Amino acid sequence: MNQSLTVYGALGSGSVPVEAALTLIGLPYDIVEAATWDFDPEVLAMVEKVNPLMQIPALVLPSGEVLTESAAILVWLADSHPEARLGPPVGDPRRGQFLRWMTFVPAAIYSLFWVRDEPSRLGGPDPAQGERIKAATAERIADCWRMMDGQIAPAGHYLLGDDLSVLDLYVTVVSRWGPGRNRFYREAPGLTPVVRRVDADPRLAAFWAERFPFAEGWER
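The structure corresponding to this sequence follows.
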């Protein structure tokens, strides 16, 4: 039996918060690079074997069990490794809000990238329609960040207190996608210090440099 964890992911993708959590926990893992948005038939066929939706991330456990959906993987990692303090356990008064926002991010924001990254999926081949979809989804994402900012008040250094959680990792990564961090800073000023703190976490410096580099102009 394979004793290692395997992450199907890609640079700058939804696998990055999962990889960051594994890094903080200290678990060894292998990466299978699988940028499905390049539409490489071999990559799609490879990913389809672990996720019929042909989406990443996917986490394959040593037992062969497969976990998909980034939020589910992150919550599972936090629950499976309580010593890492990456999420409030069952019974903790913060647990409800933890699950609320861990669900909100993929349901309200992350899911929009399925069409935003390839507008023809819903809008057809018309380039003008594609641009309208991109503009509309950018505004919806900004609205969602603003709504989140208005309903969650960081209770310490991070969103849920003084311990960095998988929620912080999730928001930090997703907020770097379109419409960009500068827009996020404007819409979510209360959340901004948290994501900047995670960006600067020395435990993740080498990880960020490798998996989601802070290239010039990255904040857009």
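The chain has two domains: 5-84, 95-201.
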